[in-house]
Design goal:
single chain; alpha/beta; Enolase-like, domain 1
Length: about 350
C-alpha cells in the first residue's frame, strides 16, 4: 500500500432490511445497521478497498452510541496522514474488522478479491450448514424441509426461545425423518439455558444425536461452563464467550480452563481475521476444532469472510449462509448454490448504494 499520507478514507451508514423478522434468544431482528468503510489512494480514488463494520445489537462490544463518532474520527485522522494500522480498537472489534477488510481489499487491487484461492477464482465451492431460525413449530419444520430439499446435509437450529418441550418435539420429528447419517444437526442456544438447568437439558437433547451445541449458557460463567464441557454428552462449542478476549493470556486461560470441543469464529465479533487466526492457532494446539460463522454481514462482509475461510482450507462445514436474509443486500458474485457458497468469478459488483461518497 502507498504511504498512509496518500490515503483517502470515508464511510457510509447502510440499513439492511430483513426479509422477515429473524428470531434469536435475544429477541427478533428487523434491520441491521452497518457502516461501509472506503479506503482509496489519493492519486487513484476510483480504485478503493471496501470494508464492513456491522456490530450486532445487544452483543457486539461496539454496539455503543459513540461508534459512528469513533469511525468518523478515524477517517479524519487517516485523511490527515495517520496510518490505518495506528489505532487501538480493542473495544471496537467490528470497526477493527471493517478497517482490516478495507485495507486488505485495497492492498490487493480494490476488486473485492482479498484472498486469491480456488474459491475466489470460482473453481470450488465452500460447504455450509443450513441455518434454521427460531419460529413456531410449523415454521421450524417448514424451514427444515426446504433446507433438506435444497441439498443441505448439516443444519443449525437456534434453540432457547420456544418452550423446551416444543423444541424437543421438533428435534424428534427431524430425527425420525432424517437419521444422523443423512443430516448433521448443530444447535445454538445463544446462552439461553439457565446454569441450574443446563446439564439436564443437554442430557435430554443428547437422545437426538447432535453434532454440537453452541454457547448453552450466557458468557462469563466459566465455572458453570467448565463443568458443562466436562459432563455434557453433547460437544460444546464456544461463541459469545470469545468476545472481548484480546490477549494470548486471556485466550489461553479460557481454552485451558473451560476445555470446549469447538470454537465458532465470527470475525465481526472478535476483531477480524488476524484475531481469529490467533484463536485457531491456540485451539488447534489443544486439539480443539473450529468453524467460521458470518454474523449478519451484507454480501461485502460475507465475501471477505468466505474468501478468508477458504484460504484456511477448512475440513468442516462452515456457517456462512446468511447472505439471503435481506431485501436490499449488495448485488455481488457471492451466491448460494445448493448447500454451498459460490463465488462467481467475473460477475460484477453493484456498490452504488454503499460506496458513492468519495
Amino acid at each position: 500500500m502507498s504511504k498512509s499520507s496518500s490515503l483517502l478514507a470515508s464511510y457510509k451508514k447502510y440499513a439492511l432490511r430483513f426479509k422477515k423478522p429473524a428470531g434469536t434468544s435475544r429477541g427478533y431482528l428487523y434491520r441491521q445497521d452497518n457502516y461501509f468503510i472506503r479506503l482509496a489512494r489519493r492519486d487513484n480514488p476510483t480504485c478503493f478497498g471496501l470494508g464492513e463494520c456491522g456490530p450486532l445489537a445487544g452483543l457486539s462490544l461496539d454496539d455503543r452510541p459513540d461508534l459512528e463518532r469513533r469511525l468518523a474520527r478515524i477517517c479524519d485522522d487517516i485523511n490527515r496522514g495517520r496510518s490505518p494500522d495506528d489505532f487501538d480498537l480493542a473495544d471496537f472489534p467490528a470497526l477493527a474488522f471493517g478497517l482490516e477488510m478495507a485495507r486488505l481489499d485495497l492492498q490487493n487491487g480494490g476488486q473485492r478479491i482479498l484472498f486469491e484461492t480456488p474459491f475466489s477464482r470460482g473453481e470450488v465451492s465452500l460447504p455450509i450448514h443450513g441455518l434454521i431460525w427460531m419460529a413456531g413449530r410449523e415454521g421450524l419444520l417448514k424451514q427444515v424441509h426446504r433446507k433438506v430439499e435444497a441439498g443441505f446435509h448439516c443444519l443449525k437450529l437456534k434453540v432457547g426461545a420456544l418452550d423446551f418441550e416444543a423444541e424437543c418435539a421438533v428435534l424428534n420429528f427431524i430425527r425420525e425423518a432424517y437419521p444422523p447419517d443423512q443430516i448433521e444437526i448443530r444447535l445454538d442456544a445463544n446462552g439461553a439455558f439457565k446454569p441450574d438447568e443446563a446439564l439436564d437439558k443437554l442430557n435430554r437433547l443428547a437422545q437426538y444425536q447432535l453434532h454440537s451445541i453452541e454457547q448453552p449458557v450466557k458468557p462469563g460463567q466459566w465455572p458453570t461452563l467448565t463443568g458443562l464441557c466436562a459432563k455434557s454428552p453433547i460437544p460444546i462449542a464456544l461463541d459469545e464467550e470469545l468476545i472481548g478476549l484480546q490477549t494470548a493470556a486471556d485466550r489461553q486461560m479460557l481454552l485451558e480452563t473451560v476445555k470446549p470441543r469447538y470454537l465458532v469464529l465470527k470475525p465481526t465479533l472478535i476483531g477480524g481475521f488476524a484475531a481469529a487466526e490467533c484463536w485457531i492457532k491456540e485451539a488447534e494446539a489443544l486439539g480443539m476444532g473450529w468453524w467460521v460463522n458470518s454474523a449478519l454481514e451484507s454480501n461485502v462482509g460475507l465475501n471477505a469472510i468466505a474468501q478468508w475461510t477458504a484460504s484456511l482450507k477448512p475440513t468442516m462445514v462452515q456457517g456462512l449462509g446468511t447472505g439471503g436474509l435481506y431485501t436490499n443486500n449488495i448485488p455481488s458474485p457471492i451466491r448460494l448454490g445448493g448447500a454451498a457458497l459460490i463465488h462467481e468469478a467475473g460477475k460484477t459488483w453493484d456498490l452504488s448504494a454503499v460506496a458513492d461518497n468519495v
